């Protein structure tokens, strides 16, 4: 395809992720929340956390949101509150970050891996049905790379099998399926606010969303030492300490006001890539029912090897990553056999992550495309 690179600067590095520009844009707002937190000494809980939970629930289209310490805790607390543990199986995609599997293992349940769709790299209803057993208690469907799974298809499979639909939404803040936001289509959803996420804290953080008030009350208690919601000194459950600090909640409130615009910046970058990438690099498909938020700029290397693409990017000072080179079932703690999930395993050797963030410019995308087209 023709590529107009007349406006690109061939000696300029391109960052894989630019958190500096994002935070400079809102620096005054962040400075104000720091001053307020120091002045009031409101470090844990309080008004900022309550307000963030209300605003994030409204953003996701749910009745409840619970701030927790990180995204892995969010997934584990959902499973624990749902009563899933030893003797139960939870289906997860082989292609995901290991935190999904860690959460299942941490409650004593068994990870049952499933293969993924080759075009989106997401789990499907058919993949779920293929590995379900009488012990299956839930599916933890991962909205990976910023695109939601087919919630209609996955939801139907869960309904047919009589199992819980749990969303791992760590990479999908603001994504939609048929108009519904990530975090609103299953029993409950876990979000990560790791700094590099679409909605990132200034450190670790996470949240759970749900429309089930009773489940929310249990998760809120479990995340705060099992404390009774009606008494500071009574503990009804054996819980843990997994709280979202109020300073992080305040920062997330600031960022939440910008996330739709930032996600549009990511969609613009995705479209620029689509118009200028060589045929040897193929973007993942976005389903017409989906509104993706492109947490990562994933492409498949089909006409040149990943090592060749990485070498070109390195030589040009362009950042890149791989998400993920080893499918979860082949990680040492899970001891899976090669060949078990051929689609996930093949794609793990083909994918590379190109620069992707809200402030990526068209010139920077053109530069990346020019370099990988050589």
Walk me through this protein's architecture:
This protein has 374 residues and is an alpha/beta fold. It folds into two domains: 19-23 and 258-373, Aspartate Aminotransferase, domain 1, CATH 3.90.1150.10; 26-256, Type I PLP-dependent aspartate aminotransferase-like (Major domain) (Aspartate Aminotransferase, domain 2, 3-Layer(aba) Sandwich), CATH 3.40.640.10. 38% of the residues lie in helices and 15% in strands. The chain has helices at 19-25, 27-40, 47-60, 71-81, 98-106, 125-131, 151-161, 213-222, 246-256, 259-276, 306-315, 342-348, 362-373, and strands at residues 64-68, 89-93, 110-114, 136-142, 164-168, 176-177, 180-181, 188-192, 206-210, 281-283, 290-291, 297-301, 351-354. The strands form three sheets. The protein has a seven-stranded mixed β-sheet, sandwiched between helices. Strand 4 (136-142), helix 7 and strand 5 form a beta-alpha-beta unit.
Q: What general form does the structure show?
A: globular
Q: How much is the average pLDDT?
A: 96
**Residue fraction in strands:** 5-15%
Kindly identify the CATH topology of the largest domain. Answer: Aspartate Aminotransferase, domain 2
List the helices and strands and how they pair.
Layout: H1 19-25, H2 27-40, H3 47-60, E1 64-68, H4 71-81, E2 89-93, H5 98-106, E3 110-114, H6 125-131, E4 136-142, H7 151-161, E5 164-168, E6 176-177, E7 180-181, E8 188-192, E9 206-210, H8 213-222, H9 246-256, H10 259-276, E10 281-283, E11 290-291, E12 297-301, H11 306-315, H12 342-348, E13 351-354, H13 362-373
Parallel strand pairs: 2-3, 2-4, 4-5, 5-8
Antiparallel strand pairs: 1-9, 6-7, 6-11, 8-9, 10-12, 12-13
Helix pairs in contact: 2-9, 3-9, 4-5, 4-8, 6-7, 10-13
């Amino acid at each position: 395809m023709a590529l107009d690179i007349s406006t690109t600067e061939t000696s300029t590095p391109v960052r894989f992720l630019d958190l500096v520009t994002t935070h400079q844009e809102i620096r005054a707002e962040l400075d104000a929340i720091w001053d307020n937190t120091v002045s009031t000494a409101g470090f844990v809980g309080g008004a900022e956390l309550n307000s963030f939970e209300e605003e994030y629930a409204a953003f996701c289209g749910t009745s409840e949101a619970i701030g927790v310490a990180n995204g892995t805790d969010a997934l584990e607390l959902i499973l624990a509150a749902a009563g899933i543990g030893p003797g139960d199986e939870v289906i997860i995609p082989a292609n995901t970050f290991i935190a999904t599997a860690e959460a299942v293992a941490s409650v004593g349940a068994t990870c049952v891996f499933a293969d993924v769709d080759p075009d989106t790299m997401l789990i499907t209803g058919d993949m779920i049905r293929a590995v379900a057993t009488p012990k299956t208690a839930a599916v933890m469907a991962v909205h990976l790379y910023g695109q939601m799974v087919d919630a209609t298809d996955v939801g139907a499979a869960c309904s047919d099998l009589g199992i819980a639909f749990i969303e791992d939404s760590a990479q999908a803040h603001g994504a939609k399926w048929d108009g519904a936001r990530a975090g609103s289509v299953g029993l409950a959803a876990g979000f990560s606010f790791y700094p590099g996420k679409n909605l990132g804290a200034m450190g670790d953080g996470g949240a759970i969303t749900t429309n089930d008030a009773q489940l929310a009350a249990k998760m809120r208690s479990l995340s705060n030492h099992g404390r009774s919601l009606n008494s500071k000194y009574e503990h009804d459950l054996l819980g843990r300490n997994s709280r979202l600090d109020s300073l992080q909640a305040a920062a997330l409130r600031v960022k939440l006001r910008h996330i739709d615009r930032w996600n549009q910046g990511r969609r613009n970058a995705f479209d620029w890539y689509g118009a200028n990438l060589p045929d040897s690099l193929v973007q993942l498909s976005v389903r017409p029912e989906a509104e993706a938020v492109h947490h990562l700029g994933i492409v498949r290397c089909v006409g040149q090897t990943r090592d060749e693409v990485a070498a070109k990017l390195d030589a040009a000072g362009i950042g890149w990553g791989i998400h993920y080179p080893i499918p979860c079932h082949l990680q040492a703690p899970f001891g899976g056999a090669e060949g078990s999930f051929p689609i996930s395993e093949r794609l793990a050797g083909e994918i590379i992550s190109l620069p992707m963030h809200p402030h990526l410019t068209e010139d920077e995308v053109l530069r990346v495309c020019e370099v990988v087209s050589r």
